Amino acid sequence: MEVSILGAGAMGSALVIPLYDNGVDVKLWGTEYDVEILKKIEKGEKHPRIGVSLPEIEIYYPEQLQEVLDSDVILLAVSTDGVLPVFEKIKDKVDSTLITISKGFLEHGKVMTIPETLWTIKPSLKEKIVAITGPSIAREVANRMPTKVVFSSLGDASKIAKYFENEYYRVEISNDIIGAEITAALKNVYSITIAWIRGYEQLSKVEMSNAKGVIATMAIKEIARFVEAAGGKKETVFGLSGFGDLIATFRGGRNGMLGELLGKGFNINDALNELKRMGVGVIEGYSNAKKAYMLLKQLEKDGAITLDKFPLFTNLYNVLYKNVSVKEALSKIFS
User: Fold this and answer.
1) Architecture label for domain 178-333
2) Looking at the whole model, is its pTM more than 0.70?
């Protein structure tokens, strides 16, 4: 079995570890943004984002993309914004299993999940796409810390899962790829709201555990409504892809950093500029919130749902895109 991982970022590189431990031949290809990381890996140095040195595997640079496309499995591990540009380069040569790990929505005529978009472009991949979701922080995976994730597909994901699963990387199988993907994307969005409270605590100098509990409960309920309206299974939201992953994000991450700054009183432009100054990259929850709003409007137009069922999300959207303060948003949420 040979797996080619496209993208040498945190999670793409972390997944080298369970595959290698299971005796799988791994090729790691990097984009133009990964070149310095690839050089460090080749020298045996620690990956700067996951803190471990990778085992000896084949490394490929941006110009060598076509050399890695004959593997049994292609794992697409680029950012959400990079999915379509890379897929356009590989779609004519990829007809084997394609695994996606990016979390988010894409616009291709309309707003869709990443798997939906890819099989819309290339229908022959519809049952060959497998999406990985669930509590899976890259640094922990790379350090062989235990977790359990979900492999979702309209086909038989168990055939692929067996090459990843071991004593520390456990896998659950699902056929609800739509529900799992929407849940995973919205987890990043709603984690911003949970982080508001951490920032607001620092501003007010009072612990707000009650508010965190309320926000987390509202988030899960709204994600469940969203998934059901979009044709997914409600129970997916209360499993590893939803509740499990949301708990894993409580610790922070980029979305949490943005939410915390907003909770401290920063407006959205100042918060984004501060994160840029700190060297923080793309905040996927920020961009996904806009696409999620567009998808909600599509679902509302189709009569599947109404926006008034999403008070937490709509107030988050107002903070991110209408310059409303977190203080004002929280006042409306708790009114």
Assistant:
1) Orthogonal Bundle (1.10)
2) yes
